[in-house]
Write a structure and sequence with these properties.
About 25% of the residues lie in helices and about 25% in strands. With about 180 residues, the chain is α+β, with helices and mostly antiparallel strands.
């Protein structure tokens, strides 16, 4: 897409470009701050960032049932998802999509970078995940996740992706798929 689009003045966050490992580290720092343990922000600051907004008596609702909180979305997944709360943010430009998920109650962070535009978001990735699967090891879960990512990429014409996941502050999986430059 670089030959077709000028990104001048459009880079996210004023020109900050990140890696999967750095995004996972940032997510873990946010969760640490939220819990008041060794964070880089105060617990009060993160709780304020993650508090749903109201405008007068109206609560902005974005993306269906999610609530908006100062740049973050707050989701309460329905059953059978085991997570109490998902704090997330997504973004992208022409040719890229990102998704950043924090599960503060479970001390987990997940990220996805796709080198396909915004249309790739939410096209069946969660619906294909087997919520009833029981894994003996993290390697077994990653094996299934690899199959899911490759299937998603094929069905949605995504030429390349990076996935990452951390548990309790430790990166347990970061992996690239497909092409970085088509």
């Amino acid at each position: 897409m670089d030959e077709l689009i000028s990104y001048e003045g459009n880079w996210p966050a004023g020109g900050i470009i990140s890696t999967a490992d750095d995004m996972l580290r940032f997510g873990n720092a946010m969760i640490s701050s939220y819990k008041g343990t060794n964070g880089f922000l105060t617990q009060q600051t993160v709780r304020e960032l993650w508090s749903p907004e109201t405008v007068g008596k109206v609560k902005p609702i974005i993306m269906g049932t999610d609530e908006y909180a100062k740049g973050w979305m707050i989701s309460k997944p329905p059953e059978p998802y085991p997570y109490k709360t998902v704090i997330w943010h997504s973004g992208g430009l022409d040719g890229t999509t990102t998704l950043f998920n924090l599960f503060p109650d479970e001390n987990m962070v997940g990220i996805a970078f796709l080198n396909r535009g915004m249309g790739a978001q939410g096209n069946g990735f969660n619906e294909d995940f087997n919520l009833n699967a029981k894994y003996d090891t993290i390697d077994d879960a990653i094996k299934d996740a690899r199959i899911l990512v490759n299937t998603f990429m094929a069905q949605n014409s995504v030429p390349g992706a990076v996935m990452g996941f951390s548990i309790n502050g430790t990166n347990v999986w970061t992996e690239g798929f497909g092409y970085t430059d088509i």
